[in-house]
Amino acid sequence: MVKFTDSHCHLASHKFEASEMDEIIQRAEDNGIHRMVTLATCLEDIPDHIKLSEQYPQVFCALGIHPCDVHQTPDNYLSILREYAQHPRFVAIGETGLDYFHPAPEGWTDTDYHARQRKLLREHFQLAADLGKNIVIHTRDKSGKQSLDDAVEIYREFAAKVTAVFHCFLGPWENAQPILELGGYLSYTGIATFKKATDTLDAAINTPSNRIMVETDSPYLAPTPHRGKRNEPSFTLHTASHIAEARDLSLAEFSELTERNAEQFYKLTV
Q1: By C-alpha distance, which of 84, 94, 135 is closest to 10?
Q2: CA 224 to chain centre
Q3: Distance of CA 235 to CAs 5, 34, 264, Å?
Q4: Residues 228, 231, 237, CA angle at the centre, nearest 5°?
Q5: What integer pLDDT is reported at residue 59 of this predicted model?
Q6: What stretches in the chain show pLDDT beneath 70?
Q7: Cβ-contact 168, 187 below 8 angstroms
């Protein structure tokens, strides 16, 4: 069976019940999704992600603070992350990044909120460098690409020591150029299967073979034909099949290159 890694999911999400996790993991296995990387987004949910990685040999974990959580993250978070990162199932820093889409929380200005996001992103990069791990980046804007540009500039400061993947990359293709020039990876979700997401699919077609990964970002962004439903790792296969066809590759050929990339980026040996 052709195999894929769901390079970015959130299995500890409240949208998944603990009682159904065995079935979710089994459906992933049945669809050739033999590995999953589940990502924490705040300090509070880190133990749940670690627990899942301990329970299921198919699951690895990445640990970080999502940009939308920076306003309620204590200043000593780095020492907490560093301690959790000693766990043997830990494979990367993230999800972290910059989010200029959501409004600033009560009591914050957009300027202060975004500045704190940039501060924590730099600190995440430094932690990744200290630990010898790579980093998973989120960017999102209401319009334009300021969060992407700012994240790339911060990445530039650390690119000699840390490799970043910009997850859920939306395109257009020209936005990928500075990321790739720094040695970064691009990861694609089910959005690449949406009929109107032509920029995303075009970017997925043009991404170099040694820089592309696939993901679900589940429970969000379910691909066609499950769009609008709760996403899960087994649906990686739909996204992979769609991109493989668009790149004029067999599923086995696309599996080979994305598996190699996931193993290299996350430093996986199993």
Answers
A1: 94
A2: 20
A3: 11, 12, 23
A4: 110
A5: 98
A6: 270
A7: yes
Query: Which pLDDT belongs to residue 101?
Result: 97
**Distance of alpha carbon 243 from alpha carbon 248, whole angstroms:** 9
Q: What is the pLDDT of residue 269?
A: 79
AA letter at 138: H
> Hey, what are 23's tokens?
């079935």
SS3 state at 167 = coil
- Edge-first strand order for the sheet with 134-140 is 4-9, 33-39, 59-63, 90-99, 134-140, 164-166, 185-188, 212-214
* Nearest Cα residue to 166 out of 196, 112, 121: 121
Q: What share of the chain is helix, strand, coil (3-state, %, to 5)?
A: 45, 15, 35
DSSP at 186: E
pLDDT of residue 1: 84
DSSP 3-state assignment of 135? strand
The pLDDT of residue 268 is 95
Domains of the chain: 4-266 (3.20.20.140)
The residues that bridge with 165 in the sheet, in sequence order, are 136, 185
Separation between Cα atoms, residue 253 and residue 260, nearest integer Å: 11
pLDDT given at position 45:
95
Residue whose token pair is 């299921």? 56
Q: Degrees (nearest 5) of the Cα angle 70, 76, 80?
A: 95
Q: Is the pTM of this model over 0.85?
A: yes
Which sign does the torsion angle of CA 15, 167, 200, 5 carry?
Answer: negative
